[in-house]
Design goal:
globular; 3 helices; alpha+beta; 3-stranded antiparallel β-sheet; 6-stranded antiparallel β-sheet; Metal Binding Protein, Guanine Nucleotide Exchange Factor, Chain A
Length: 197
């Protein structure tokens, strides 16, 4: 997205919001889609190379693009390419029921990709049986996954670095016998398996 596509709302600039202390320059770690009813166009930019938040007039509905991501689509585009349950989990940060995912007990050799954009996320050699009811990996491919603390601080969300799709959560220090002592607990529906050739 280009910040100059629509002129900023003069009374809602990041500078004026900063003066009112209603806007803090902290990293935004979630991709958010907002349809305000009376706000013209407002850009709240993060000074760091992280996601940006864009609010727009309802007639110009736009999706929020992850600044570091290479796949940028509107909510309507995601709805058109994803199945309803994939959209609920990947874009709305849902969770599939425990033990129901197709990859929970699957251990084929290959690469697990993002079901939304096809970005390679995990090697099958990093998958392990944690008994949690969701596919578990001890690490992702370098640069493929973003980690962000949930708003309540109890868990750390993992998302696809390319499209911002919700994958699940990462847990550390649980004592699993893995090289990283991390468990990436991933929704099966967020993944697509590509077998080794």
């Amino acid at each position: 997205m280009h910040a100059n596509k629509y002129p900023p709302c003069p009374d809602c600039s990041p500078r004026s919001l900063g003066k009112t202390r209603s806007f803090y320059r902290t990293p935004l770690n979630l991709a958010i889609l907002i349809y305000p009813s009376k706000v013209k166009t407002l850009y709240l930019s993060n000074p760091q190379p992280k996601p940006s938040l864009v609010l727009s007039h309802p007639s110009r509905r736009v999706g929020v693009a992850m600044a570091s991501g290479s796949v940028q689509k509107s909510e309507e585009e995601w709805r058109a390419i994803l199945a309803p349950e994939q959209f609920r989990i990947l874009r709305m940060k849902g969770t599939e029921y425990r033990g129901t995912g197709q990859y929970d007990k699957f251990f084929g050799e290959g690469i697990y990709e993002c079901a939304g954009c096809g970005t390679p996320l995990y090697k099958s050699t990093t998958k392990f049986n944690s008994g949690c009811g969701w596919p578990a990996f001890y690490e992702g491919l370098p640069g493929a996954i973003n980690c962000s603390p949930d708003p309540d601080g109890r868990r750390t969300e993992i998302t696809c670095a390319a499209c911002g799709g919700h994958l699940g959560h990462v847990f550390k220090g649980e004592g699993f016998n893995t090289p990283t002592d991390e468990r990436h607990c991933v929704n099966s529906i967020s993944l697509k398996f590509a077998p080794a050739s």
